Amino acid sequence: MASFVLQKVVRDNHEDEYNGKKRNTGAFTFLAWVSFVLALAAMLIGIINLEQPLSVKGYYAMTALFLTMSSFVLQKTVRDNKEDEALEPPATEEHL
Questions:
Q1: Per-residue model confidence as pLDDT tens digits over 42-73
Q2: Beta-carbon contacts of residue 19 (< 8 Å; ≥ 6 apart)
Q3: Which of 56, 68, 84, 93 is the most exposed place for a label (fewest CB within 10 A)?
Q4: Other CB atoms closer than 10 Å to residue 27's CB: what's the count?
């Protein structure tokens, strides 16, 4: 969840630089970054303290990194698709 929120906040803030509007406050941006860092730290601590061989810990660590990255990509894709739908003209009977 933290990675979804962080990706949204970063993208909103980047777009707002060009649009001149402000969708996220500085406090919310800070909260998004802190929650993401805390979630990664908690995951890392959990993997380090796991009483399993190093190969299992490595597997969990790589899986966690792939899951984090895929959540960024999924959130971006869903948002892009939603924005593209808003840009497309509605289908009329002539086009069907």
A1: 999 999 999 999 999 999 999 999 988 898 88
A2: none
A3: 93
A4: 8
